[in-house]
Design brief:
The chain has 313 residues and is of the alpha/beta class. It contains eleven helices and 14 strands. Helix content is 35%, strand content 27%. A hairpin with a 5-residue loop joins strand 1 and strand 2. It starts with 5 loop residues before the first strand and ends in a 6-residue tail after the last helix.
């Protein structure tokens, strides 16, 4: 991609902390975000996603490398860049004692916008967030989903070129998540560039044009969701469950079926281009699983293949 077409460009981007103990949170990563796309950072806890987002948002200085945002150096044009960015942090920073409308008004004043202009934009933003009937309600009266929609609406008051969303739907119920996805998709359709972090594979697949998978401060893979699935996993996965006392022995007998076999504590995964053929091969070896499920591979398989299954706190 032509560098001039990149809304965000990072080369060797690094963030280190003195500690104690000293550590590197982001270890020399390269990426570009194109205007009008939704770009996602995917990774386990501690992978460096949020640290990268804070550097893009000009709230945390880089330790090394290059970072250009909107054609400006993030180190020398911090104020000008922040004026063109909308930010949706992991935790809502709304003033719960104020009304929905007042939260947008005060946030708009941070950007030096005239009150009349903020009120004009507030009408459109509340309609966008489906909160028009809640404009006079105090934030403390809103549900979690309404608060997230208000936080996103508030982040748009300065009509930003770029919106940063750090775990935008964490803690929301399925209905609220899907409504938020629909609002974010509409934003992208309107030409707003989105950069988000998420733990949800379905969210990444639904929203992101391209993804960077991070682990231990590095980007270990990047591409569209479809490209990542095609590159790192097979077309299908066969999931088998056996009796606990037969689990290990059955897994050994199944080795060699498919392209790759993974043994989990509760099931055996066989990665293959044809799950039904793999199941027939398993049964020809005299194995009789308690359950057998053939499914299409997805981003979760890619994620676990690249970052492992160890629990990261």
């Amino acid at each position: 991609m032509d560098d001039a077409a990149a809304l965000v460009r990072a080369r060797g981007l690094t963030k280190t902390y003195d500690g104690p103990p000293p550590y590197t949170a982001v270890a020399g990563i390269n990426f570009e975000v194109r205007r009008g796309e939704a770009f996602g950072f995917l990774g386990p806890n501690g992978a460096g996603k949020s640290t990268t987002m804070r550097m893009i948002g000009c709230v945390s200085p880089r330790s090394g490398g290059e970072l250009e945002i909107l054609g400006r150096d993030a180190a020398t044009a911090r104020k000008a860049i922040k004026a063109r960015i909308g930010s949706v942090p992991q935790d809502d920073t709304l003033d719960t004692e104020l009304t929905v409308e007042e939260n947008i008004l005060i946030y708009g004043r941070y950007f030096g916008l005239p009150r009349a202009l903020i009120r004009e934009r507030t009408d459109r933003l509340l309609e966008f967030a489906r909160l028009t009937d809640k404009r006079a309600s105090r934030v403390q009266e809103l549900s979690g989903g309404m608060r997230r929609r208000l936080t996103i609406a508030r982040s748009l008051v300065n009509e930003p070129d770029l919106v940063l969303l750090d775990e935008p739907t964490t803690g929301l119920d399925p209905q609220a998540r899907h409504l938020l996805w629909e609002r974010l998709f509409r934003l992208k359709q309107d030409g707003v560039t989105l950069i988000l972090t998420t733990h949800y594979m379905d969210e990444a697949e639904q929203l992101c044009d391209r993804l960077a998978v991070m682990d231990a401060g590095r980007i270990v893979a990047h591409g569209s969701p479809r490209e990542l699935i095609d590159r790192y996993v097979t077309r299908e996965v066969l999931e088998l469950r056996f009796r606990l006392d037969e689990h290990e022995l059955s897994a050994e007998k199944a080795r060699g079926v498919g392209e790759r076999l993974e043994v989990l504590p509760d099931r055996v995964l066989i990665y293959t281009s044809d799950g039904e053929d793999a199941l027939d091969a398993v049964r020809r070896r005299g194995l009789d699983p308690l359950t057998a499920l053939v499914r299409r591979s997805g981003l979760e398989d890619v994620f676990l293949s690249l970052t492992g299954r160890a629990l990261v706190e």
